[in-house]
């Protein structure tokens, strides 16, 4: 049984993402089962959970990149499957900042790629001045003005991550979706990046959804934590929401272990002893004692 709270009620903004009775499979395996989720404008939601719990699958389903078995996802009031949200939602994937070493591109050029799509490719030359202003603004937001004309390969991991976030911001997207943006960056860069994301939420009024394995970082930055884990259903396990609420109320490590069904192997375990009168009694027996008796 998880810890579920109507945490989205703390924010009365417009609903921008709504998942209803969502079930998703990968291959022949049902990965997510009966997910119900509401995200409102201005939320900073951290999505955490162990490997295999369905975090990335949920992101891809929200973005309309995976078909659903049941239920649906709406983004900004429209079915995500029809991709009508293009331009209003930006996805920063885990591999976005890991460009091949043989590619030579400056920070400014990388961010400029964010404004190129089917609608802007042809009139690109005519709109160069307008695009430059958007790129300059994105550079300012991510704090990379001083390295705008530096090759991306010469930047630190944290700076490269900022650059790909700048590429997402240049589109003026309302919703930013991140898949493990903290991987491969040092402590100072991580703290700086989290502060940037917080500013985007509070100052720029963006809605953020971020997947991360770093529960500590999520607790220190997100407004809301959603914890996905496998739930035993009959003879199989499927991903589901085990916690949805404010970071301050997120279960401590002991509670989280209990939630996941993980037992302390060093603690005594209760065993059931059948008495002569037919009744049963619970008795604490140390693990070492059990091994000796066996």
Plain-language structure description:
By secondary structure, this protein is of the alpha/beta class. The protein folds into 2 domains: 3-266, P-loop containing nucleotide triphosphate hydrolases (Rossmann fold), CATH 3.40.50; 267-294. 27% of the residues lie in helices and 29% in strands. The protein contains 8 helices and 13 strands. The chain has helices at residues 55-62, 107-112, 128-141, 157-169, 187-202, 215-221, 253-259, 287-293, and strands spanning 3-4, 15-26, 29-40, 44-48, 70-75, 78-79, 89-92, 175-179, 207-211, 224-233, 236-245, 269-274, 280-285. The strands form 3 sheets. The protein has a 7-stranded mixed sheet, sandwiched between helices. A hairpin with a 2-residue loop joins strand 5 (70-75) and strand 6. The two termini are 33 Å apart.
Helix content: 25-40%
Q: Helical stretch count?
A: 8
Per CATH, which architecture of the largest domain?
3-Layer(aba) Sandwich
CATH topology value of the largest domain: Rossmann fold
Number of domains: 2
Structural class: alpha/beta
Give a short account of the largest sheet. 7 strands, mixed
The CATH superfamily label of the largest domain reads: P-loop containing nucleotide triphosphate hydrolases
Summarize this structure briefly.
The protein has helices spanning 55-62, 107-112, 128-141, 157-169, 187-202, 215-221, 253-259, 287-293; strands at residues 3-4, 15-26, 29-40, 44-48, 70-75, 78-79, 89-92, 175-179, 207-211, 224-233, 236-245, 269-274, 280-285.
